[in-house]
């Protein structure tokens, strides 16, 4: 079983159970969106010593939790499972996600620190992503950047340092 050095921030105990079945890993549970100061302190300490990967549900509460953690720990890495891969019988979440999607998300965790502009707004417009949801989602999936609107995608591409040429190449590979 592969050992994950970083501590993974998840929402609840079922997420922890799923991760522990896939990896030798330590987790910090936020207990949903009611994340308190004690949990934030634990996450900050883990970030100093081992690093942190945020893996929250691909839904609105999961995005809110991710935002709270990022405010406290801007150097955290991000792992994203696509919503389509995380739909269970009654809910959407990491515990309901396909095991392969979770492994892929952890292995492709991204860091948004030290962001530099790698793509201009004009280059972004040239990619025909604005107004083309299918293409926008394909870019999100290709680079494991989670989910969001057009502005969020533009921001994340720059945060990770992805260029227009890299996007074109990836889209052509995945057609």
Structural summary, described in words:
The protein is an alpha/beta fold and 175 residues long. It has two domains: 1-113, Dna Topoisomerase Vi A Subunit, Chain: A, domain 2; 115-175, no CATH class. It has eight helices and five strands. It has helices spanning 13-22, 37-49, 60-72, 99-107, 121-126, 133-142, 150-160, 164-173; strands at 7-10, 27-29, 52-54, 77-78, 110-111. The protein has a five-stranded mixed beta sheet, with helices on both faces. Helix 1 (13-22) links the parallel strand 1 and strand 2 (27-29). The longest helix has 13 residues, at 37-49. The chain is globular.
* Radius of gyration based on Cα positions: 16 Å
Kindly state the number of beta strands. Answer: 5
**Number of structural domains:** 2
**How do the SSEs run, as a string of H and E?**
EHEHEHEHEHHHH
Q: What CATH first level of the largest domain would be assigned? A: Alpha Beta
**What number is the mean pLDDT?**
90
Write the layout of secondary structure elements.
Blueprint (H helix, E strand, L loop, with lengths): L6 E4 L2 H10 L4 E3 L7 H13 L2 E3 L5 H13 L4 E2 L20 H9 L2 E2 L9 H6 L6 H10 L7 H11 L3 H10 L2
Parallel strand pairs: 1-2, 1-3, 3-4
Antiparallel strand pairs: 4-5
Catalytic activity: Endonucleolytic cleavage of RNA, removing 21 and 42 nucleotides, respectively, from the 5'- and 3'-termini of a 5S-rRNA precursor
Subcellular location: Cytoplasm
InterPro entries: RNase_M5, RNase_M5_C, TOPRIM_dom, TOPRIM_RNase_M5-like
